[in-house]
């Protein structure tokens, strides 16, 4: 009933196509933990990957000098304009928007706030965020 946004179609499709697999390693109880979360159900965290070594074209390799860099790719899935907070339990030292070749964009660094990293989405926009982790 209702719209596809209200029905949670995007999340249910991911659950169907990418089910979680349980791997038992020991009988010890582990606390619940999540490396990343996004504050809006309209925003999907699609990809998490180590930054590519070809993060800069031509004049050297940006990410090759920073093996602690990861890229998080997110998109707005509901056709709305929304502000979302990307939160992580990882020790982030620096965050910046980057292009699809993982080169930092002219918009520069994103402030690290208590709520996480603030991201602004227009309908169906894809954003890539480069996170540099502390050692």
From TrEMBL:
GO terms for molecular function: alpha-mannosidase activity; carbohydrate binding. One of its GO terms (biological process) is oligosaccharide catabolic process. Transmembrane segments: none annotated. InterPro entries: Gal_mutarotase_sf_dom (IPR011013), GH38_C (IPR041147). Residues 43-126 form the Glycosyl hydrolases family 38 C-terminal domain. Pfam families: Glyco_hydro38C2. PANTHER family: ALPHA-MANNOSIDASE 2C1. This is MA2C1 mannosidase. It comes from Baryphthengus martii.
């Amino acid at each position: 009933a209702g719209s596809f946004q209200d029905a949670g179609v995007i999340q249910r499709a991911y659950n169907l196509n990418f089910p979680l697999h349980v791997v038992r390693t020991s009988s010890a109880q582990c606390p619940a933990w999540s490396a990343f979360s996004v504050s809006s159900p309209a925003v999907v965290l699609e990809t998490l990957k180590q930054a590519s070594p070809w993060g800069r074209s031509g004049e050297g390799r940006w990410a090759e000098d920073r093996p602690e860099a990861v890229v998080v790719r997110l998109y707005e899935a509901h056709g709305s304009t929304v502000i979302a907070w990307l939160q992580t339990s990882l020790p982030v030292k620096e965050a910046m928007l980057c292009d699809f070749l993982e080169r930092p964009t002219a918009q520069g660094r994103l402030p690290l706030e208590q709520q996480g990293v603030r991201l602004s989405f227009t309908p169906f926009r894809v954003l890539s965020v480069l996170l540099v982790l502390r050692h």
